[in-house]
Amino acid sequence: MSFTYPLLASTISASGGEGQNPFEYLFAHVVAHKVGSFMGFTVWNFQLFQVAAIVAIFLAFAPVRRAIQASGGGYATRVLAGWVSWIRDEMVYPNMGEAMGKKFLPFFLSIFFFITFQNVFGLVPGGATATASVYVAAALAVIIMLMMIVGGMLVQGPVKFWTSLVPHGVPLWLLPLIFPLEVIGLFIKPIALTVRLAANMTGGHLVLLSFMGLAFYFGANYGTGLGLVVTPVSVGLSVFIMIIEGFVSLLQAYIFTLLSIIFVSQALHPDH
């Protein structure tokens, strides 16, 4: 077997051979690895799939606008156009209003499809799920936090933004307690976005890879016969989890985007 992730090859060999440790090799799928360097900067595998997601978005949506204007296009184009309309009408406009929603719609569409394509790439053989990295998820969450704070101060004004964190009618003696809690809550929101996205994508892949490794584990440690007996169960469970992972890829993109829309909307319009 040739190791796709050379950093783990020595670990597997040192601990008794690759056949005895299939999970270490399989779990490398959710770990970032160096794949080279560019202009003196280290290039990681997750970065390649992030770039691939951006390229895929441009390629997939290039014909959508023309198809909408011409009221035509193929089936895939109509599906993508339907997704855009659904995100606009069911997620952005209901939470932000049409006037403000039009300004933010391109941003949230980009967030949704960027996460979706990264999640889907993790299901492709040889692919990697960039959103399973806490650094990638945290970077997206930091962008949302900046949209909340900077956007809120631009729309409301710097003073009103921070004072509006405290609900109306709070007694003065509670302000020293309520205001710090509200500020902390402001920063907890992007942390929740990070943990939710990274943990769900990592956990799903670990379950899938665990089921895939069962046949190899039993075959390597208890004989080929038992490995063949376990293989149908291992494959069946893997296929089942793979189907669920396809749904989760869309679900996590939806949840991250919807919560981001709500958080930004609350920062821009606290009265709502």
Question: Concise description?
Answer:
The chain has 272 residues and is mainly α. It has helices at residues 6-14, 22-27, 45-70, 75-96, 98-121, 134-156, 158-163, 175-222, 224-268; strands spanning 34-38, 41-44.
Could you characterize the architecture of this molecule?
The chain has helices at residues 6-14, 22-27, 45-70, 75-96, 98-121, 134-156, 158-163, 175-222, 224-268, and strands at residues 34-38, 41-44. With 272 residues, the chain is mainly α. It contains nine helices and two strands.
Task: Give the topology, please.
Layout: H1 6-14, H2 22-27, E1 34-38, E2 41-44, H3 45-70, H4 75-96, H5 98-121, H6 134-156, H7 158-163, H8 175-222, H9 224-268
Antiparallel strand pairs: 1-2
The number of strands is 2
- Summed up, the domain count is 1
- Mass-distribution shape: globular
Radius of gyration (CA) equals 23 Å
Largest sheet: 2 strands, antiparallel
C-alpha end-to-end distance: 58 Å
Q: Which segments are poorly predicted (pLDDT under 50) over 5 or more consecutive residues?
A: 1-19
Distinct helical segment count = 9
Strand order of the largest sheet: 1-2
Whole-number average pLDDT?
Answer: 81
Q: What portion of residues is helical?
A: over 70%
Give helix and strand order, one letter per element, not per position. Answer: HHEEHHHHHHH
Q: How much β-strand is present in the residues?
A: under 5%
Structural class: mainly alpha
